[in-house]
Amino acid sequence: MRTRKWYVLAVTPMFLLAARGLYADFRAGYYTPAGPETIHQTLPNIVSTDATYDAGQYPIYYPELAAGDGKDDVENNCELCHSPRYITMQPVMPPQAWSDEVNKMRKTYGASIPDDTAQKIIQYLGTHYTPETRKR
User: Residue 111 in contact with residue 81, Cβ under 8 Å?
Assistant: First the structure.
């Protein structure tokens, strides 16, 4: 009987500490509604009658592709899946890497580009977007 009392007296404080910790973790994510002790930021007193505001679609950067034979093929086929930014923002690549990219788009991602058109696109990208021709 005496051992049981000793055990209860030893375990009870540990249990209470653990329960207190769990309760604190539970309450940590609870945010009380705003009360008088919260800080409120006042709006500025600037009233402008000459300002014009317009809300519209966020402007999308649409880069101009280099002029050349195959540009239309790129615009008509590649832009069905992605923006031309994917072309202009690629790291500088040699012509063989462009061939690999176009083939990856066709074989891995399922781009429905005919063989002859794919060759034109590869030729265009390999001509205008290589280390030698890329604008710095």
Answer: yes
